[in-house]
Amino acid sequence: MDVSADALMDIFKNRGIRSSYTRMRIMQYLMVNRNHSTADEIYGSLVEEIPTLSRTTVYNSLHAFVEAGLARVVTIEDNEARYDADISDHGHFKCDSCGRIYDFTVDVDCIQPKALEKFRINQRDVYFKGICLGCLDNK
Ligand SMILES: [Zn+2]
Ligand SMILES: [Zn+2]
Predict the structure, then answer these.
(1) Are both 52 and 19 inside the same structural domain?
(2) Which ligand is located closest to the Cα atom of residue 133?
(3) Which ligand is closest to the CA of 129, given by its number?
(4) What's the pLDDT at 97?
(5) How far is the CA of 84 from the centre of ligand 1 (A)?
(6) What residues contact residue 77 under an 8 Å CB cut-off, 6+ apart?
(7) Nearest bound ligand to CA 73?
(8) Which residue, 5, 45, 83, 133, is most buried by CB atoms nearer than 10 A?
(9) Residue 63 pLDDT more than 80?
């Protein structure tokens, strides 16, 4: 995906998001660093470059991206929201040892629980936890 400033400004315009240099940098960060960052991590990475940045701005921008369908929230841990610019269907695996979050392909549409047949589903999340291969090999 094109992460240039011009391309992002166009995307913001099309999705009705108020655009600013700061928002553009936050979106770029999310698209380049596919590490499912928390708002705090994004703040910490960008504050040197943008000294006027506040945590509130980061939260508000992320919220606007999620509302507009440009990003999604990954709540694999209760106490922290992580953000993902990859909005395609995929599951998340969190390693209990190194804390890394891995993406994996899963056909989420195939999960159709009979008990929820008549319900309206707004969101489907697939979360796995365990120990990743890298950590298993280091034991
Ligand atoms: Zn690990
Ligand atoms: Zn992801």
Answers:
(1) yes
(2) 1
(3) 1
(4) 95
(5) 19
(6) 94
(7) 2
(8) 83
(9) yes
What is the 137 CA–ligand 2 centroid distance (Å)? 23
Question: Which domain-ending residue is among 28, 44, 75?
Answer: 75
- Tell me which ligand sits closest to the C-alpha of residue 98: 1
**DSSP at 17:** P
Q: What confidence category does residue 1 fall into, taking pLDDT thresholds of 50, 70 and 90?
A: low
Output the CA 32–ligand 1 centroid distance in Å: 21
Measured CA to CA, the distance from residue 106 to residue 115 in angstroms comes to 21
What is the number of domains present in the chain?
2
pLDDT at 110 over 90: no
Hunting for tokens 């936890």 — which residue is that?
Answer: 129
Q: Which domain holds residue 28?
A: 5-75
Q: What is the edge-to-edge ordering of all strands in the sheet holding 127-130? A: 101-105, 90-95, 127-130
Q: What is the pLDDT of residue 77?
A: 86
Whether 65 is in a domain gets the answer: yes
The answer to whether the beta carbons of residues 66 and 110 sit under 8 Å apart is no
